[in-house]
Amino acid sequence: MNEIQQIMRDRYPGNTWADVARRDGPLPDVLARQANPEQDLRDISFARYTDQDFFDREMDRMWKRVWQFACREEYLAEVGDFFVYDIGRLSVLIVRSESGLKAYYNSCLHRGTKLKASGSCGWSAGITCPFHNWQWNLDGSLKAIPCDFEFPQLDRARAGLAEVQVASWNGMVFVNFDPEARPLLEYLEVLPEHFTNWDLTGWYVATHVRKHLPGNWKLSMEAFMEAYHTPYVHPEMTNVVGDHNMQHDIFSDHISRDLCAMASPSPTSERKMTEQELLDSMLVGDGAMVGERTKVPDGKTARWVMAEQLRAQMRDKHGLDYADHSVPEMIDSLKYHVFPNLLVYPAPGLCLVQQFRPDGHDRDRSTFDQYVLHPKPRDGNYEVAEVEVIGEDDTFASVESMDPFLASVLDQDTDIMRWQREGMYTSGKGTETLSIYQEARIRHLHDTLDKYLEVSK
């Protein structure tokens, strides 16, 4: 335990996330680990959010070199299924071919026309340019050209679609524009080991909402990388959700996490609640997955009851065995950050994926994709959700498929973003000052970004 972690333990004696989590039994090794190395406590310049030159360097030096989440595998389940992933001005067409996943630059080799519309998905027997009808097979090889005698200079054997690296892990599809990039599993560093107990291949996208946001992609994502703001932006949560006593871990360049206890009050809460009150008020990502609340037996906690109830639901409805999973593995908000822009919550009680990207080529705007995952039913009868797109002035609460609690929290988080963006531009100071622990992962994000941009601090 380093000095920073000791400060947090001294500040919240007996009430850190690890303390709360151990009340119902020992922690698995991956959750017992703590890693929060000391950092340079410099301020972070607002130019990293607002400057066009900085944004352009990100697009050229970072986004073209990192593995980035594109979609869930459910969108590419059958041969011929396709999904278009866009980042800035770049666009990738991902398809399921006979030999597996393939990804191509979404651009015709004739005159550059996009082959499929941005953000689209569906099924196609092949790949056809909508402008002049040039055609390729799903494996990227050239199939046909109208008036092919007009192109004697074309080497048809080398006229296949330009490829982008593609790989999948845990039901998630990633792409990388760098042909020399190291394999995805190496890029993910400790993540595959940590997710040994969370197999998300048996889950599917039940809800997918994309919201346009009025802030730089980092600004938007960083709101979800700390809970320092919770008592002030989400005051209704403080009685039943830990926040300032969360655990923050930094494992490597690309992987960090925060661990937040459910059915455990914030250190800022002044209300004393019984275990039964905690259970009755407990917040989960999708309450429908848990069902009606029961009674807390003597000597047990609300957290234990919720975990037991969720295990029974998973077993009875979905045939999933979580008997060996600890209480926090079942119900807590365990949020892993994969650099640059992905947050994954693997616990069955809060199984979410969140993604943040530049909105087109606008440094001041971003898109936020919110996925809610559900277990695939035993009978195999399920429908993968289509993306529902909402604007800056629309609310998550207006989306019928969203859980009301989750929607209200997301609305509170995103409502503040325009204020922050405008404040960055009007700042007389020009920098942000981050806390040493609760906001350490934000500073780490910028440290890793610097390694890609090769800029001075």
Automatic annotation (TrEMBL):
The keyword Repressor does not apply. Keywords: 2Fe-2S, Iron, Iron-sulfur, Metal-binding, Oxidoreductase. One of its GO terms (molecular function) is 2 iron, 2 sulfur cluster binding. Residues 67-175 form the Rieske domain. Its cofactor is Fe cation. It comes from the Bacteria. Pfam families: Rieske, Ring_hydroxyl_A. Signal peptide: none annotated. This is (2Fe-2S)-binding protein. It comes from Novosphingobium malaysiense.
